[in-house]
Design brief:
4 helices; transmembrane; three-stranded antiparallel sheet; YgaP-like_TM; 2 domains; transmembrane helix; alpha+beta
Length: 95
């Protein structure tokens, strides 16, 4: 139980802040709310087409259940944000 506004749990500082996912959040969860665009237009188009193609092939039975992985590139295209790009510091969009 949190006794004050901030407590330390391991190496994370737990802060009591209002957020839609619950009353408690870690500093890294707060960062996920502020997603900055890191995927450019061409990259988005390629990811969107690839994601839709994989999902369509799975729905039609031409590809096994692994085709549902197409949700990942489709979601990153919709959000214009890739967590792997953030992790490695890549950015394909213009500032």
């Amino acid at each position: 139980m949190i006794k004050s506004l901030t407590d330390r749990v391991g190496c994370f500082k737990v802060m009591k802040v209002p957020n839609p996912w619950g009353p408690l959040t870690h500093h890294w969860e707060k960062r996920l709310v502020n997603i900055t665009k890191n995927i450019g237009t061409t990259d988005r188009a390629i990811r969107g087409v690839a994601g839709i193609a994989l999902i369509a092939l799975t729905v039609t039975g031409n590809l096994g259940p692994w085709g549902w992985i197409g949700i990942v590139p489709l979601a990153t295209a919709i959000l214009s944000w890739c967590p792997a790009y953030t992790l490695f510091g890549f950015k394909t969009c213009k500032d």
